Amino acid sequence: GNSVTQMEGPVTLSEEAFLTINCTYTATGYPSLFWYVQYPGEGLQLLLKATKADDKGSNKGFEATYRKETTSFHLEKGSVQVSDSAVYFCALLSGNTPLVFGKGTRLSVIA
Amino acid sequence: DVKVTQSSRYLVKRTGEKVFLECVQDMDHENMFWYRQDPGLGLRLIYFSYDVKMKEKGDIPEGYSVSREKKERFSLILESASTNQTSMYLCASRLNSGLEQYFGPGTRLTVL
C-alpha cells in the first residue's frame, strides 16, 4: 500500500538557519504530494503541494520538489523564523482515497 | 472563508460514557474524515465518508462508530469510552475532485 516516511523530530534550529525535513514515499501510480503544517493549538493546514514529477510547490518561503526518481518530497526553507515553530506533515494522495500522512516532524525555532 | 468546525475544543468524560464528537463543514464537500492524533504516532484515520449515509473504516475503527445523516455533518461516536481513547481528534473534509483537505481545530478528549 501507499506510505510516507518522514524524518523524526524534534528538530531545533536557531532563527535564520536553513531547514530541511526529509520525506520519502511509496505509492502505485502518480500520487499528488503535500506538506501540511500544524501550529500550536490548531488543526492542520495545507502549506504546499505538487501534483506531478519535477513540480515545485512553494509557500511562505518554504519549497519542496516532487522527485519521482528518488520518490522524495523534501521540505526546505532558507531562513527559518520563530513563527515557523510547528509540526510538519508530509502526505500523499492517490485518486479519491484518504490522504496518507507521515508521522510528523516537530520544529522548534529559537531566537 | 472555508470552515470546518468541531463541537468542542476540550472534553472530559468518564470511562463507559457514550461520547459524541460533531464536525460540520460549510463547503459542500462530499468527503469527510475523522483522525486521531497521538504523540509519536502521527495522524491515524478512524473512519471516513464519501457521501451522505456512506461510511468506510479507516485504519483504527475499533471502539468507534460514525454517522453521516446530512452532507455537512459527520459525527464520531465512542460507544463506551475507555482511557486509551484519550487523544486529540481531528475532523477534515475534501471535495471528491479536490486536492486540498481542510481540517477543523481538533477536540482534545480526556477519558478518566
Characteristic key phrases:
heterodimer; A: 111 residues; mainly beta; six-stranded mixed sheet; four-stranded antiparallel sheet; 0% helix; globular; B: 112 residues; seven-stranded mixed sheet; 11 strands
Description:
Chain A is mostly beta strands and 111 residues long. Chain A has strands at 3-6, 11-14, 19-21, 23-26, 32-38, 44-50, 56-59, 62-65, 75-77, 86-93, 100-101, 105-110. In chain A, the strands form three sheets. In chain A, strands 2, 5, 6, 10, 11 and 12 form a six-stranded mixed beta sheet that branches. In chain A, strands 3-9-8-7 form a four-stranded antiparallel beta sheet, with no helix packed on it. In chain A, strands 1-4 form a two-stranded antiparallel sheet. Chain A is globular and about 45 Å long. In chain A, 37% of the residues are buried. Chain B is built from no helices and eleven strands. Chain B starts with a strand and ends with a strand. Chains A and B meet through β5 and β6 of A and β5 of B.
Summed up, what is this model?
The complex is a heterodimer of chains A (111) and B (112). Chain A has 111 residues and is an all-beta fold.
List the helices and strands and how they pair.
The complex is a heterodimer of chains A (111) and B (112).
Chain A: E1 3-6, E2 11-14, E3 19-21, E4 23-26, E5 32-38, E6 44-50, E7 56-59, E8 62-65, E9 75-77, E10 86-93, E11 100-101, E12 105-110
Parallel strand pairs in A: 2-12
Antiparallel strand pairs in A: 1-4, 3-9, 5-6, 5-10, 7-8, 8-9, 10-11, 10-12
Chain B: E1 4-6, E2 10-13, E3 19-25, E4 31-38, E5 42-49, E6 56-57, E7 64-70, E8 73-78, E9 87-94, E10 102-103, E11 107-111
Parallel strand pairs in B: 2-11
Antiparallel strand pairs in B: 1-3, 3-8, 4-5, 4-9, 5-6, 7-8, 9-10, 9-11
